[in-house]
Specification:
This protein is an all-alpha fold. It contains 4 helices and no strands.
């Protein structure tokens, strides 16, 4: 049995307009659900690698600064 938007809104305690907006957004973006998942995984992997590199460089800089300033004291 398919429920109407007002029934769903009542069941989940949200305004019917919110459900209508969610449905509209989903239908507008449904093609992204079926995009090449390998490509998305590769992009995520690349972003993770860059983040790890940035964190590593930040930690190295932090250690350098601490060592540099502790010597000067």
């Amino acid at each position: 049995m398919q429920k109407t938007i007002p029934q769903l809104a009542d069941e989940y305690g949200v305004h019917p307009t919110r459900i209508s907006n969610w449905k509209k957004q989903f239908l507008e973006n449904i093609s992204s659900v079926f995009e090449n998942k390998e490509n998305n995984a590769e992009k995520t992997y690349q972003k993770a690698r860059i983040t790890i590199q940035l964190v590593s460089e930040s930690q190295k800089t932090s250690v350098f600064v601490k060592e540099h300033f502790s010597r000067g004291s």
